[in-house]
Every structure is written in C-alpha cells, then in structure tokens.
Amino acid sequence: MDVEPAWEAAGWERLAPRVGRCRLPVWDCTAGLVVGDGAALMIEAGSSLAEGAALRTRAREILGGGRRVTHLALTHPHFDHVLGAAAFAGVEVYGAVGIDTVFAKGRDELCADAVRHGVDPRAAAEATDLLVHPHHLVCGEWTLDLGGVQVLLANVGPGHSGHDLAVLVPGADGEPEIVFCGDLVEESGEPQAGPDAVPARWPAALDRLLGLGGEDARYVPGHGAVVDAAFVRAQRATLAARFGVS
User: Fold this and answer.
1) DSSP assignment, residue 159?
2) Cβ-contact 39, 231 below 8 angstroms
3) What is the bridge-based pairing of β-strands 165-169 and 92-96?
4) Cα–Cα distance between 79 and 93 in angstroms, integer?
C-alpha cells in the first residue's frame, strides 16, 4: 500500500511510502503517521483537543475509505505532545513506563504548564480533565504490527523527560529507517531541559536512538526539520558538554 500521492495534498511531509509527518503551529511540534494495511499509528496528539481533532481529520484524508487512526504513541508527557489524546476515541495508547504516574499525579502541573505557554486556560483544563492514560506501558521494546509494516516502540529514556519513548519504522524497498525521537532531539532550537529532565542520562538516551536507527536513518525531532545521524551525534556532544557528563 503506497499512499504517497495523498501526503502532500493533505498537508503532510512524506518520509516514506507509508510514513509522514506534519509540523503543528505555535510550538512547531512534530506529529507522525504510519499507515498499515489494517491499522494506523499516530505519533503525538497535539496540545489541545482541537489540535488533536485536526490531526485526526488530517489522518483520515490519508487513510481514506472511512478508516481511522487505531494506535497512538506519546513520546513523553509534555502538554504540546499529549493534551489532544482524548480526540482519538477508541485508539490503543502507548507510552513509556511511568508516564501514567505523571498523568495521575501531575495533572494540575500539566495544565498549568500549558497555560504558561499560551494555551487557553479553558482549553487546557478541558484537555487535562479528559486526558487519556496509556493502555500499554513500554518498559523495553514493543513491536506493533499494523499490517504490512511493523513499528518498534522503544523506551530509551530518561533524558528530555523522565519517560521518553522513541518510534522506529524499519526501512523497506531501499528506504532508510525512520526514528521519531520526541524532544530528545530538537532542530528548530536548543534542546529544552525542564524540571523533569534527567541531564546525566540524556546523552545515553541519544546513544540508544543512534543504535536503533543506525548511520543511514532519518531522525525526526520533536521540533524542527528531519536530521541525520551526524546531527544527533553533534547534539549529543553539545548536551554532554552542557551538563558535564560523558
């Protein structure tokens, strides 16, 4: 199944015949879509219910035939990546082990962080009230069979947050591997280390990303343009120097 002709028309950047991504407004957060024969995976949910609903609609333009997103992967528990999750009704939601605790105990802070960054307070409160807890918590690695394509979810953190999940889409027919990195990698600005970051382990998380994808993979940052392995290695060196770790 090659949905390539539909990607650009629907506002997605094609990364492989079955894989695309879009850059959401305001925070330049990346959302990804992997299309299988019988299922579809969305990576990230957006910063609000409205943004999640818009992503769902854009995905349907690619999927066609009344099909919908069936799986949702959240790379880490920050508002711009998770608050739209409730817009994806009936999907199977995946996150790194521990993200459920953040959602259960840190809901007020998640809402407050969204408001601090400019999300309308009512929209932030509604999204956090309806926040969907992951149904599946990834400790090591988890393989999803979407029909015709298998996707690997890997718990590679902590680093940018306490609970970082990466998504690897293997290459096929000469295409390179694609690694969705979440905010472990950022291209449009300096990597952000908030209060839940674990700086001492961030470089090691990037090593795990590089081990997943290899030298020829395309690495999709949480914010910014797609990069290569050399960029990830350079960002690793910068973070190691910044935080005084090897």
Assistant:
1) S
2) no
3) unpaired
4) 16
Q: Using a cut of 0.85, tell me whether the model's pTM lies above it.
A: yes
- pLDDT (tens, 9 = 90+) of the chain, 246 residues, equals 555 557 988 889 999 999 999 999 999 999 999 999 989 999 999 999 999 999 999 999 999 888 999 999 999 999 999 999 999 989 999 999 999 999 999 999 999 999 999 999 999 999 999 999 999 999 999 999 999 999 999 999 999 999 999 999 999 888 999 999 999 999 998 899 999 999 999 999 999 999 999 999 999 999 999 999 999 999 999 999 999 998
- β-pairing, 40-43 with 30-35? antiparallel
Residue type, 211: G
Decide: helix, strand or coil at residue 169.
strand
Q: What is the dihedral sign for C-alpha 129, 130, 136, 140?
A: negative
Cβ proximity of 7 and 20 under 8 Å: yes
Instruction: Extract the runs of DSSP E, i.e. beta strands, from 82-180.
Output: 92-96, 136-138, 141-145, 150-155, 165-169, 178-180
Q: Which of 181, 149, 172, 174 is nearest to 35 (CA)?
A: 149
End-to-end Cα, the chain, rounded Å = 44
